[in-house]
Amino acid sequence: MDIDLAKIDDAVLALLYLTRHDERRAWKGMDWAALARLHAKGLIHDPVNKAKSVGFTDAGLLEAQRVFARDFIKPTPAIMSVRYGQSTATVQDASGVTGVLCRNADDGRHFFRVYGEGGAFQDYEVRHDDLPVTIAADAMASFYSVGEERVLDHSPDVLGLNSPTGSRSPGASASRGG
Predict the structure, then answer these.
(1) Contact 78, 92 (CB under 8 A)
(2) How far apart are CA 48 and CA 39, in angstroms?
(3) What pLDDT, in 10s, does the model give residues 29-79?
């Protein structure tokens, strides 16, 4: 195995930044070889002493902050304003957002629901064509084939469906009752 020591050093430096105290010191419970390399690069003071922490150099503190932000802070989604139809809209990238595809029972139109903290949610009308969707493993969903009809619905257990013989069969093809 060929280990990328520069990446290890960056991770150790960022973790030292995470555990810093008194603004310029960090607990030195890290790999000693990595600490030695960081000292050789002039990023921390000599870790070989009786202290349980190590000090950052001026350059080391700046580099630690940069590496920590690069590797461990989630980027803030860019929000911008654009002309959308006849109005101005704010835009935020939806890539990687998890939500629930729902259908309005009154008019049959689909919408995408994104849940936030405390059960709050935001609904979005779906206008995108050919949007790739992955069904989560715990979604309790099944595909049904009834003649030529193809349906994606809740699993048989959720719908309370039984196999034609009367016993429950999660993998059985069934039509939705009622």
Answers:
(1) yes
(2) 10
(3) 888 999 999 999 999 999 999 898 999 999 999 999 989 888 888 766 677
Strands 25-27 and 20-21: antiparallel
Which of 35-65 are b and which e, b meaning 16 or more Cβ less than 10 Å from the residue's Cβ?
Answer: bebbbeeebbbebeeeeebbbbbeebbebbe
Q: What is the dihedral of CA 161, 166, 172, 175, to 10 degrees?
A: -50
Query: In whole angstroms, what is the distance from residue 83 CA to residue 175 CA?
Result: 46
CB 36 within 8 A of CB 13: no
Q: Which residues lie closer than 8 Å to 161 by C-beta, 6 or more apart?
A: 174, 176, 177
Instruction: Tokens for 73, please give them.
Output: 């802070």
Burial class (CB in 10 A: 0-12, 13-18, 19+), 161: buried
pTM for the structure as a whole: 0.46
Instruction: Name the β-bridge partners of 21.
Output: 25
Q: How far apart are the first and last CA of the chain?
A: 60
pLDDT in tens, 83-115: 888 999 888 888 788 899 999 999 999 999 999
CA distance 75 to 6: 23
Q: Return the structure tokens found at 133.
A: 């969707």
Assess contact for 112 and 97: CB atoms under 8 A.
no
Instruction: Decide if 43 contacts 57 (C-beta within 8 A).
Output: yes
